[in-house]
Amino acid sequence: MTELSRRGLMYVMSSPSGAGKTTITRALLRNNEGTVLSISATTRPRRAGEVHGRDYFFVTPDEFRDMVDAGDMLEHAKVFDHYYGTPRLPVEAALAAGQDVLFDIDWQGTQQLVEIARNDLVTVFILPPSRQDLEKRLRDRSRDTLESDTEIRGRMAKAGDEISHYSEYDYVIVNTDIPLAIDKAQKILDGERLRRHRTGGLSEFVRGLMKGL
Ligand code: 5GP
Description:
This protein has 213 residues and is an alpha/beta fold. The chain has eight helices and eleven strands.
């Protein structure tokens, strides 16, 4: 019998910071064996509790520029006052191995991935249920990350800009309830994995089926 394989997909999640995207991404990683997270490189300073190579690759502006110039970034963008980018090689290796890759990137990076990899891409935008909820989550989190009030105000101001891009995404999840939002993100992943164009060897399989019909 012909072997049916599946091409790995690129699952992008964007949202204003504080909408719960990181929690949802972590749950998907936990619940989907073989699914990997794309670790971005950034020039932003490390926050308390963040680990180099786990949360981000923390690099200098010079190192970042060298990676971009060498073509080592799949996409990159300036977000707030810092540069962020997706190292190309780990993503290509995972996809080639049939693994799904999760991305936590902003709308600018998503647009670049749409340009280069539309067929491999599934994009999801997470919205907070309300402005007050978003502010509360940012303030709660700032206690762990030691973010300043100015940083939080900056993030609130940028939230509107990020949210204005929601309609460029394939799916939107309003995160009123974390377990429900995780369930929706999982259903999207499950459905997208079944798409015909992601199934390898299908035409040979069907040719085999048709023989003698
Ligand atoms: P934070 O500094 O809070 O970790 O992230 C700030 C924003 O940068 C988030 O919206 C996050 O999605 C975005 N971001 C993180 N990594 C990347 C990346 O590699 N590329 C792009 N374009 N955005 C990123």
